[in-house]
Write a structure and sequence with these properties.
The complex is a heterodimer. Chain A is an all-alpha fold. In chain A, about 70% of the residues lie in helices and about 0% in strands. The longest helix of chain B is centred in the N-terminal third of the chain and has 30 residues. The two termini of chain B are about 20 Å apart. By secondary structure, chain B is mainly α. The chains are: A mainly alpha, B mainly alpha.
Chain lengths: ~80, ~270
């Protein structure tokens, strides 16, 4: 798994990697971070809710909204 | 033992026995015919049951559950077609080589509609998800592959069928319908296959990967079937049937993986 200097990015990737694979986890994080106007290395705790929402929306097509919401919650819980 | 592991064992043993029976020709023509009719019925029913359990595993009736419902509906229609075909050939004793199109063909052809719709929904859902779509150049290469495939099918299957003076009316319609529908369905299957390749070993992509492989197996079988029916050389219980059976079982595996995925995360799998 790619190592970020930002621990929040590492934690999000840690949740996503087993699900979507290392490469896609980094890709998802990058695209969602860009969407809210940042990079993975600049993510702060304030960005977590927006990132979680974007990732949750992306997971719906694979897991259904019920499970995607649970994973979104897991990301929201990151401190 | 996990259901997916069990189904893998079943698929492997089934394919080995099926292949051995086809190649050896044990039991003669009648046995091959019975086998050729009953095994697809068994495989399609397994597929329908597994797809139903996958559909049931989604808690919320959302976009995703609808897409799986459409795939279930398509495979259900295929199963009805398999059963109809077996009844016509084994019980009504119709010569199915002479009976084309039959009632079974109507179910098969109708089945394409929900299947295509369901796969289209998956692709649209993915596109809207904001997940990376991968290398745009590869979509260009995929388009070229589809165009080449279309040209080959058009030249070697569609034109000869269309020009055959003995193939007219409904026969012509159904003979053309299968290859065209297969080309259309192979497009989302190729796209799904490419998308799942982006996920590497991520478990989330397993169901889609197997769905795509299942559709490929169907496409190969359908194209060979259309060609052989038009040539009048198709016989039940041939190698083509094995591709259909594998297609059903691979789709059943896709459904089992989807169910396991949803259950794993519903039980807090993401926490571990």
């Amino acid at each position: 798994m790619k190592e970020y200097t930002n621990p929040l990015a590492n934690k999000i990737c840690g949740i996503l990697s087993p699900l979507v694979g290392d490469m896609m986890a980094c890709g998802v994080l990058k695209s969602q971070a860009i969407k809210i106007g940042f990079t993975e290395e600049n993510i702060t705790i304030d960005h977590i809710p927006a990132l979680a929402e974007g990732i949750e929306r992306g997971l719906v097509i694979f897991l259904g909204s019920g499970v995607a919401k649970q994973i979104g919650e897991k990301i929201r819980d990151i401190k | 033992m996990k259901k997916s592991t069990l189904l893998w064992y079943f698929t492997a043993v089934f394919c080995a026995i099926n292949l051995a029976l086809i190649l050896s020709g044990i039991g003669g023509e009648r046995f091959s015919l019975v086998l050729g009719d009953l095994l697809p019925v068994l495989c399609s029913i397994i597929s329908v049951i597994c797809l139903y359990t996958a559909f049931r595993s989604f808690k919320v009736f959302d976009f995703t559950k609808k897409a799986w419902l459409l795939i279930l509906a398509g495979i259900f229609l295929y199963a009805v077609a398999e059963i109809t075909y077996a009844i016509l050939e084994l019980i009504v004793k119709k010569d199915m080589n002479e009976t084309f199109p039959s009632l079974a063909d109507i179910f098969w052809c109708t089945g394409y509609i929900p299947l295509l719709w369901g796969m289209g929904m998956m692709f649209i859902g993915y596109k809207q998800s904001g997940f990376p779509l991968g290398n745009v150049k590869l979509y260009g290469i995929l388009s070229v592959i589809v165009l080449i495939l279309f040209a080959v099918i058009f030249y070697y299957v569609l034109i000869p069928i269309f020009q055959d003076p003995e193939t007219t009316g409904l026969q012509l319609f159904f003979s053309m319908y299968y290859p065209i529908a297969d080309i259309i369905i192979v497009i989302p299957a190729l796209v799904l296959m490419y998308i799942t390749s982006l996920f590497g070993r991520g478990k989330i992509s397993l169901p889609w990967r197997y769905l795509a492989i299942g559709f490929f197996s169907f496409t190969i079988a359908d194209l060979l079937y259309s060609y052989q029916v038009w040539q009048g050389i198709y016989t039940g219980g041939s190698l083509i049937d094995l591709f259909w059976n594998i297609g059903y079982l691979i789709m059943a595996l896709a459904a089992i993986y989807q169910k396991q995925l949803v259950e794993f995360f519903s039980k807090g799998g993401a926490q571990s």
